[in-house]
């Protein structure tokens, strides 16, 4: 046991790693829970390396950190005794070792947060506890004339006070926003993915915890929520320029990120614990991502505003400690186009063994992912949304056992999902699942997803002429934990193979704007249903027992589907119809699943005719309805419902 006072950080961490390594070596490979013990021990070793880097520039430890390390010290001795050669080996012993390792992992997690904590600044005013009041304080800044006035203003002191009183976890989440350009609108989804990748939002229900962190920051007044038009929940946020200045100041002081004199993020020196490389430029031209001086030390690479990026393959191979690789679009505007000039560097993705978040949203010229992706055993987030040239997903995705989020929505050339997705038992969010009607492909079926006991959100895309669509959709009702379901019916893509190959050949030169226009032409849709086509059978949906939100888009029939409940309970609270041929909602009550619905949204339904009294009769617990761009008679019987947000994304 080490003494509680006067020991060096390096010596203690070295001793701790040696004891844990020695203990795990003494455990037989045939012992019960051996793989779990080994995996947890490896995670602890990695976390200790991170802590060692974080504390390397500090002269002394905080008192609370010393207490946590002393506790770890005692637990490590217990593990050493349990694994001594003279001790017996049985199931109870293995369970005790797992418990002790989990205790160490929990304390190390607390230390990691503490190691990134930030010094408290003197308070000039009492901390504001009410989020609404703090938001009002921001308005005072508009009356100030200079930066010096602002930095000395009571409003600025209040913002600092609010930050100081945040939990350490929220402080780190907030500082992530410091790298984004002034007045830019940041997608909530991009932030949550980053936080999950940084391991800031826990191991269970990371989506819900990430949402909670975002809303807490909104309520604090430090970030300004941005809403979709007619939306009630924020889809993004932005920082007031002077809150951003405060965030930059704190980020530099705490070595969270480095910035130049103009507040532009730059790649920090090696003493920065994140070893971040931030890609940014002011030019719309091919820009090489600078990974020097030592790519092997980089933990994070974030593309801020490079529209056409190039990455050296040999340097990319050295990113062996990379954990966050965000090359795609984080901004809310879909016109923000990104293209890779040399997508071949992605062939080496398998070398990034520590990667937890891979973000390629909206990146052009990526037609497939390399087979080596199956080696990314730590990957949690794979964001491929709006990769318009993506044609195929590798079967190796089934090996990403820690994956919690997979987003392939708006990948219009993707024709099927690979088999094996049902083995991703940690998956919580699956966006863009394609129900395939192709023969000769090993396509994943919806029935395979019934194995995913943690899946909370699912969006599905299927063709209106897909065979056995009813049987496919019936399987959704057996995804027991599902809370949010989106289904989009498509009517085919006007795309010939020959034309696709020809366009790909033309797009080899890095011309982002012209290439984007070509890609847009390839994605035009054509109707495949004609008067001679075989009529679709009546659509009915079996709802999962805990489903709270159902969003049906481009519904292909005139009568609403029959919604059936799987158990004697009604959990559905939100029902949305967006686009399609819907004329009547009269059939929707028959399945007995809508009696508890509180929110109904009807958008772009030009043939729908319904009065508000009828809507209220169908949904007796209705609290809010939105009717937008629907038939002329739809709003008769009551005023048109709408929401208005001054901070709206069109």
From TrEMBL:
Keywords: Plant defense, Repeat. It holds the Pfam family LRR_14. Residues 342-530 form the Disease resistance R13L4/SHOC-2-like LRR domain. Residues 179-246 form the Disease resistance protein winged helix domain. GO terms for biological process: defense response to other organism. This is Disease resistance RPP13-like protein 4. It comes from Protea cynaroides.
